[in-house]
Specification:
Elements (H helix, E strand, L loop, with lengths): L2 H16 L10 H17 L5 H18 L3 H8 L3 H15 L7 H12 L4 H7 L1
Helix pairs in contact: 2-3
C-alpha cells in the first residue's frame, strides 16, 4: 500500500466516523470549542509534577472518545504522533528550569565555553 493510498484510507475512515450519529455529534460545536479551551487552560495551570493534572490530562480524551463512539485505541495511536514533541519540550524545560545543584542549561553552556578555550574543567575551576 502506497503512501497516497494509506492517506486516503485514513481520510475515508475519519469521514465515516464523522457521519455516525453519536451524543458528541449532537452537541453544539461552539460548546465543544469552549469546553476544549477550558480543558487546555486547566491542564496547563497544573504543576508539572501534579498527579491531579496528569489524571485530568487522560480523563477528558477518554470521556470524549466514549461520547463520540471512537475506539480508545484509535485515540491512543493518533496521540503517539505528538510524543516526540512532548518529549523534546519536557527535556528542554528540565534543562532550562532545573534549580541550583542540578543539571542546568548554564552548566552545559559553561562546559562548552571551557572546552572551547582548550582547558579542562578542573583547570578552569582552579583558576577561579
Amino acid at each position: 500500500m502506497g503512501a497516497l493510498e494509506k492517506a486516503l484510507t485514513e481520510l475515508n475512515e475519519v469521514e465515516r466516523m464523522a457521519c455516525t450519529g453519536s451524543r458528541m455529534h449532537s452537541i453544539d460545536p461552539r460548546a465543544k470549542l469552549i469546553v476544549t479551551v477550558i480543558y487546555i487552560v486547566v491542564v496547563l495551570s497544573f504543576a508539572l509534577d501534579s498527579p491531579a493534572g496528569i489524571i485530568l490530562f487522560w480523563v477528558f480524551p477518554i470521556i470524549v472518545s466514549a461520547m463520540s463512539g471512537i475506539s480508545y485505541n484509535a485515540v491512543f495511536v493518533k496521540s503517539l504522533y505528538t510524543l516526540p514533541f512532548i518529549m523534546f519540550i519536557g527535556i528542554f524545560l528540565f534543562l532550562l528550569l532545573a534549580g541550583p545543584g542540578k543539571i542546568s542549561l548554564d552548566y552545559f553552556i559553561s562546559i562548552f565555553l571551557i572546552s572551547q578555550h582548550g582547558k579542562d574543567e578542573s583547570e578552569e575551576l582552579d583558576e577561579v
